[in-house]
Specification:
353 residues; Rossmann fold; 2 domains; five-stranded mixed sheet; 12 helices; 11 strands
Length: 353
């Protein structure tokens, strides 16, 4: 065990709370599983409304990373970290270094990477203190920004969904509503537009919407109306839990395929999507490109051809999940979970032997 065992966090191996009075650091590092290897997952910085909200987020995200790494067939377990604070005003080099010391104290049980509120420069600052970070832009095995690889995987998965659900082998004229124009969402929009898709976009930042309208010819949509868009594909690329019983009932798109983590409020929402005949591409499968990119760096031998090979294998796995859903009538999220759980269980058995 790499940190103290917290009995109230059922299913997690360890949860570490990091506090540094000198810098104001308040952070949580959650290690869900190391059955497949050291835990890996991004560090998120956000102004959470409460400590409980931060804990809930990091626990959900770390569990999701276990499944994401397993489904991508990576030698990594699942972990995640959050720094509580406003990245626009609270993020300082000393705070990042204090967080990095907390990561370093785990002795390699957890590797941090970028996530919402934490960028490439921040990861590089952490790397001055600990070697247990990935997504660096300098160094012998540096993998750089994982966002373009995440976006490429989502693009490939979305294209697969259009083929499987709509019978169309081209994205020319396909209408896609993109919720969230961060690094991944905007990269995805560029790829979709280049492939001939038409875009409806939203973001909490008016400047991001204006950029997509001006540069990509996208249609602007208010944040609370994007779910109602009359499109072929809804691509959530912002926060989690966007697919709830209420929002699913409003969906007009026959496909959901996006980059956001934890898109479903709960597992039952996958069944609700299936009942509405909406093809849901499980989030932690379709958005696994970034962690594949990071995994190459953690292995110490970044190789773009290995990353692309793994990404293509992940798309084959995604296609197999859709095929199994057609055959069994089960929701795609449940089938993805079962596949990931089999791989995790097999690793746990080998570790116990």
């Amino acid at each position: 065990m790499c940190a103290f065992d917290h009995r109230s966090f059922a299913g997690h191996e360890a949860v570490t709370f990091a506090h540094d009075p000198a810098t104001g650091l308040h952070a949580i590092i959650a290690i869900h599983s190391t059955a497949l290897g050291p835990a890996a997952g991004g560090c998120r910085m956000s102004s959470y409304p409460s400590a409980d909200a931060a804990i809930d987020d990091v626990l959900r995200l770390s569990r999701g990373m276990t499944y994401k790494n397993a489904i991508a067939d990576l030698p990594l377990g699942g972990g995640k970290s959050v720094i509580i604070g406003d990245p626009a005003s609270d993020k300082k080099p000393a705070l990042l270094e204090a967080f990095a010391r907390a990561v370093d104290g785990l002795g390699g049980c957890y590797y941090a990477a970028e996530d919402m509120g934490i960028g490439l420069a921040d990861v590089q600052a952490m790397a001055r203190v600990t070697r247990y970070v990935a997504g660096r832009h300098t160094g012998s095995a540096a993998s750089g920004d994982p966002s373009p690889v995440t976006a490429r995987g989502v693009f490939l998965g979305l294209r697969l969904a259009v083929l499987r659900k709509l019978g169309r082998d081209s994205l020319d004229g396909v209408r896609v509503a993109v919720q969230g124009l961060g690094n991944v969402g905007l990269n995805l929009c560029r790829k979709l537009r280049a492939a001939g898709a038409t875009l409806a976009v939203t973001d909490v930042r008016a400047s991001a919407i204006n950029f997509a309208v001006t540069e990509l010819g996208a249609e602007p949509v208010a944040p609370d109306a994007i779910i109602d868009s009359d499109v072929d594909v809804f691509a959530p690329c912002a926060g989690g839990a966007v697919l709830t019983p209420e929002t699913i009932a409003r969906l007009k798109a026959p496909i959901v395929a996006g980059a956001a983590n934890n898109q479903l409020l709960d597992d039952d929402c996958g069944e609700q999507l299936r009942q509405r005949d909406i093809l849901y591409m499980p989030d932690y499968v379709i958005n696994g490109g970034g962690i594949i990119n990071v995994a190459a760096e953690i292995a110490g031998r970044y190789d773009p051809s290995w990353v692309e090979h793994k990404l293509q294998r992940l798309m084959a796995t995604l296609n197999a999940i859709v095929t199994d859903a057609d055959r069994t009538g089960l929701p795609t999220n449940i089938l993805a979970d079962r596949m990931a759980e089999r791989r995790i269980a097999s690793a746990e058995q080998c570790r116990a032997a």
